Amino acid sequence: MARDRAEIERLLRLRKQMKSRKPEFLRTLWWKFPKFKNDPKWRRPKGIDNPIRLKLKGRQPMPDPGYGSPAAVRGLHPTGLEPVRVSNVAELERLDPARHLVVIASSVGLRKRLEIARAAREKGFRVLNA
């Protein structure tokens, strides 16, 4: 990533502004069937006459590439740092505290989790889930 810090911050602000305008994409008829109410996440409508697929006026919008965030900041934390999943202390050696945030893997037990969190803080990393 060869962009300067000011450009990254500008794109992060733009991403936040774009996300505030983005609608919530829920599956077709999520309100009608109990099995959809429990899990209303987006599923592409495939019916031949489906009004959402046909993008008819007054219907909920479909996800499109235009709703995406800028490619330079896609996947970054709001601080502008890249979250990295870590499973052991040795993996911290390859990371840079100025570029990365540490997320301790869910499969790590309490004893090793405390070890990783302590070592990460000593090296200057921010730990998201410790």
Fold topology:
Layout: H1 5-21, H2 34-37, E1 82-86, E2 100-104, H3 110-122
Parallel strand pairs: 1-2
In short:
With 130 residues, the protein is of the alpha+beta class.
From the structure above, extract its key features:
3 helices, 26% helix, 2 domains, 2 strands, two-stranded parallel sheet, alpha+beta, 130 residues
Spatial ordering of strands, largest sheet: 1-2
Average pLDDT confidence is 93
Structural class: alpha+beta
Distance between the termini: 28 Å
- The oligomeric state of the chains shown is single chain
Give the number of domains: 2
Number of helices: 3
CA-based shape: elongated
What is the chain-wise order of helices and strands?
Answer: HHEEH
Radius of gyration: 20 Å
Low-pLDDT stretches: none
| Helical content class | 25-40%
* Strand tally: 2
> Strand-residue fraction?
5-15%
Task: Note the main sheet.
Answer: 2 strands, parallel
Structural write-up:
This protein is of the alpha+beta class and 130 residues long. The protein has 2 domains: 5-71, no CATH class; 82-122, no CATH class. The protein has 3 helices and 2 strands. The protein has helices at residues 5-21, 34-37, 110-122; strands at 82-86, 100-104. A two-stranded parallel sheet has the order 1-2. The model has no long low-confidence stretch (mean pLDDT 93).
